[in-house]
Amino acid sequence: MSIQKIESSKPYLPYSVIHNENETQIKQPPWNPKFIVALLILSGFVFLGSSIFWERFKDNPDLNQEEVEAAQKEAEEITERHEVWIQYVLIADYPGKRPCMRCPGGVALVTLKTGEVYKYGITTQGRNRYSESYYAKLGLTYIEEFRGSYEECKAREINKIMAYRFLPQSKKPEVKLVRPPGNANKN
């Protein structure tokens, strides 16, 4: 009885073929390489977003103690008033020009197609974050994406803003965007 192991002749296929006298077996690894790559990329986005978030508030020599204490006091007051935070997205209802907050090159308006992201944000007020006239004037729909603590929602918001630059919709005819047009550079 002879057993012969033959590696795949195609290096991009993650399996091996085992031939013996009576049968041929195809052995696949217990993991899917595409899943591992996707998981690594997602982990990178989460790490990048959370590290950027904490880097701005932790041990920043540009912040004076008064600013830090004021921000901490405001966060505590908000936490006491509202336990549930909401991470949301505003998307375009129809194609057209929308205001661009601090876009590169001083571009004031950018073209959005139906369903494209205008802004990611967090709030405790739900849809009441903006008035109905604001939604109607800009042709936007409010969609709640996540509910949780301030920290969870802020981390998700920052991750989505940072990942926006990799979406096809970030390439506008007017300018290449690094963040959604409705998000200012304060995050």
Attribute tags:
8 strands; alpha+beta; globular; 187 residues
Structural summary, described in words:
- 18% of the residues are buried.
- The chain is α+β, with helices and mostly antiparallel strands and 187 residues long.
- It has a 3-stranded antiparallel β-sheet with strand order 1-2-3, with no helix packed on it.
- It is built from 4 helices and 8 strands.
- It starts with a strand and ends in a 23-residue tail after the last helix.
- The model is unreliable at 5-14 (pLDDT under 50).
- Helix 1 (33-57) crosses helix 4.
Question: Gist?
Answer:
With 187 residues, the chain is α+β, with helices and mostly antiparallel strands.
